[in-house]
Amino acid sequence: MKKILTKRSILLALLLIGLVILPFMGLSNYMVRVLVNCLLYSVLALSLNMFSGICGQISLGHIGFFCIGAYTSALMSLRLNAPFGLCFLSAGVLAAVAAILIGIPALKLSGGYLAIITISFSEIIRLVIVNWVSFTRGPMGLPGVPQAQVFGVKLSSPYQYYLLSMPLTLLV
pTM for this one? Predict the structure, then answer.
């Protein structure tokens, strides 16, 4: 048992070292952006694993909560000039409130019925975002979202975003 734990610890340490030095191995900005997206989608996959893998429920609505968080952060940053930390926390809180609002009526459901409720929720979110053009610009998206500023440092390169997203992903 101790030998397996040691091998696992060594592999984990090597993986962490690799994650830290990977973007500095001469990768293009595009490749580092792809790595950042991989880290962000890893957080989404980890949350889905918790719901499906650990709780044993079927959810097809995770992207709806992801969308609520993303649009909350972007709109607060664009319209209110809110700092990154406040946008980040507000995105999580609003997505959690939406999860509670959808979760309370769905508490007694499981299996296919829960899947139908969750996918319906995500579809409603998608339709609201696409059709509320005056608020979200609909299918045109939200251009000009300001760059994040963390501890007084303005994140301007993909490498800086990678160094922000990697520990957050590891924390999740």
Answer: 0.79
